Amino acid sequence: MPRHSFRQRRSGAAPSSDMLFGLNPALEVLRISPDLLEKLYVARGVQAGDRVVAEARARGVAIEVTDRSALDRMTGGGHHQGVAVRIKPFSFAPIDELLRDAPRLLVVLDGVTDPQNLGAIVRSAEVLGAGGVILPRDRNVGVTPTVVRASSGAAVHLPVAQVVNLVRTLEQVKDAGYWIVGLDAAGGSRFQDLPPFERVVVVVGGEGKGIRPLVARSCDFMVAIPVRGRVTSLNVAAAAAIGLHELMARLPQLATIPGDR
Asked: Taking Cα atoms as reference points, which of 155, 149, 170 lies closest to residue 215?
């Protein structure tokens, strides 16, 4: 996947948090998530931007021709190649609305701080049939342009709720009829030991620290993913994908009702 970077800056200024820049990243997000774009900015005289402009026009995205110095300021001196896009503010789903729709599989994140990991988890959740993702407002990355791009557009299609108190939300989720399964290397349960579920939530902790103790106490089961190699841990996004796949196998009705989540 083509890369853009907020690290390769020629000045100490940070880029605007709603900007995505670079030719390939701009083309990619135009193709997968044009509805999320507010405006395309193109520096004067940048011939390589013609493809991006044509894509934006075809998809009805507003275009503004500007100076390279303006793009330098918007991207914090990043390697923008004369092209940047502004992402609209992400629209989070209300938790009450998400639970009212009663999807049979949900993902809850506790302290995932890497936008690439969050994007990968959202993508896995959408592909594997989850009905939504819940994340805390604090100590967790929000849905940024990098997350949208890393999700390959899944963030556009899958409801994502942001909550103030994760423990209180898990109690609300339980009251709505869900079992809560946490993923933890020290968990005392295995996937094959779990009972069949009608509705289930998988809780995934953050990079390095895992699920916080207070959140873990809200889980009905703590499940460990078996590790057989020399490396003793999994990336959080990989662990989430395995957990989703395993829990989906315990919801066989999902495989027989196309589009029903």
From this structure: 170
CATH superfamily of domain region 19-87: Ribosomal protein L30/S12 (3.30.1330.30)
CA distances from 126 to 36, 119, 204, 242, 261 (A): 17, 11, 16, 14, 10
Beta bridge partners of 105: 200
CATH topology of domain 95-256: Alpha/beta knot (3.40.1280)
Domain ranges of the chain: 19-87, 95-256
Which alpha helices (H) appear in 75-165, and where do they start and end? 95-100, 115-128, 145-150, 154-157
Q: Is the pTM of this model over 0.85?
A: no
How many CB atoms lie under 10 A from the CB of residue 34? 17
First-to-last C-alpha distance (Å) of the chain: 29
Q: Along the 261 residues of the chain, how does pLDDT read in single tens digits? A: 333 333 333 344 444 568 888 888 888 888 877 888 899 999 988 876 788 899 999 999 999 999 999 999 988 888 888 999 998 888 899 999 999 999 999 999 999 999 999 999 999 999 999 999 999 999 899 888 888 878 887 887 899 999 999 999 999 999 999 999 999 988 889 999 999 899 999 999 998 889 999 999 999 999 999 887 766 678 999 999 999 999 998 885 544 444 455
Number of neighbours of residue 258 by Cβ within 10 angstroms = 6
